[in-house]
Every structure is written in structure tokens, then in C-alpha cells.
Design a protein that fits this description.
It is globular and about 40 Å long. It has three helices and five strands, in the order ααβββββα. The protein has a three-stranded antiparallel beta sheet with strand order 1-4-5, with no helix packed on it. Strands 2-3 form a two-stranded antiparallel ribbon. 32% of the residues lie in helices and 24% in strands. The N and C termini lie far apart (32 Å). The longest helix has 15 residues. It has 105 residues and is of the alpha+beta class.
Length: 105
């Protein structure tokens, strides 16, 4: 198993602890008790457009409503997108993350 695969497996198993360690200011806002891992393939321009694949995509409930409040909902969910990268320069990752954000939105 490659380091990339192992890290992704560990993040999937310990998503709450991952947030507590690397994003401690965000961790209290999410309920990681039942994460819903999503399909990793994105099709931004079907049927003939390119296929994209994200590393990890997870739907989690929030502990409080997300701003701006659009509806009177009791529970809220967010998508958590994590990319595991080692050697890509920051400008390359920034452009790719912006494209993924656009596709997921």
C-alpha cells in the first residue's frame, strides 16, 4: 500500500481526530459521528466533458446552522474536501482546488 493510500485510509477512519489535530478551530463545528463518504468522480461537463477525481469527499452534519441561513432547518450538512499532496507547488494546488470547488458547487 502506498503512503498516499495509507494516509487516505487513516483520514477516513479518524476524520474527527484529523480535524482536531490540523483544524482545531473548525472541529467543534462538525459532527463526525456518521460521516458519509461520497463518490470521488466528478463530471463537470457531462456527457462528453472530462472526468475529474478528488482524493476524499465527505458529507458531515454541522452542530449548528451554517450562515447564511436560507431555510429553517434542524440539521445542516457540509461537504469536506481533502486533497493529499506532497510535491505540487502551492499555485498548482490553489488552481486545482478552485476548479474542484466550482465543480462541487
Amino acid at each position: 500500500m502506498s503512503h498516499d493510500q495509507l494516509l487516505k485510509l487513516l483520514i477516513k477512519e479518524f476524520i474527527g481526530q484529523f480535524f482536531e489535530l490540523f483544524l482545531p478551530e473548525w472541529a467543534p463545528h462538525f459532527d463526525f459521528s456518521h460521516p458519509e463518504w461520497q463518490e470521488q468522480e466528478l463530471f463537470p461537463d457531462p456527457p462528453d466533458g472530462p472526468r475529474r477525481e478528488v482524493d476524499l469527499l465527505c458529507k458531515v452534519k454541522t452542530r449548528s446552522p451554517v450562515q447564511p441561513i436560507l431555510r429553517n432547518e434542524e440539521t445542516w450538512q457540509v461537504l469536506v474536501h481533502i486533497e493529499v499532496e506532497r510535491n505540487d507547488p502551492l499555485p498548482t494546488i490553489s488552481r486545482r482546488m478552485h476548479r474542484y470547488y466550482t465543480f462541487l458547487r
